[in-house]
Amino acid sequence: MSDLVLTVDEAADRLRVSRWTLYTLIRSNQLRTVKIGRRRLVPADALAECIRALLEVA
């Protein structure tokens, strides 16, 4: 079963970017996240959405 949500580190690993770059995507609203308690999590499908949006701009 695939993960529904990823930690910031897991999402950064999957996108092959640094944590800093991932947080930049989050702050610029290019990557959707959810907050559960104090943890910020990235829905797995949000990675694909982010890539598609970035491809449209490129």
Automatic annotation (TrEMBL):
Pfam families per record:
HTH_17
Instruction: Show which residues constitute the signal peptide.
Output: none
Domain of life from the UniProt record: Bacteria
State the InterPro entries in the record: DNA-bd_dom_put_sf, HTH_17, SinI_DNA-bd
Q: Which residues form a coiled coil?
A: none
Where is the Helix-turn-helix domain positioned along the sequence?
5-52
Q: What is this protein called?
A: Helix-turn-helix domain-containing protein
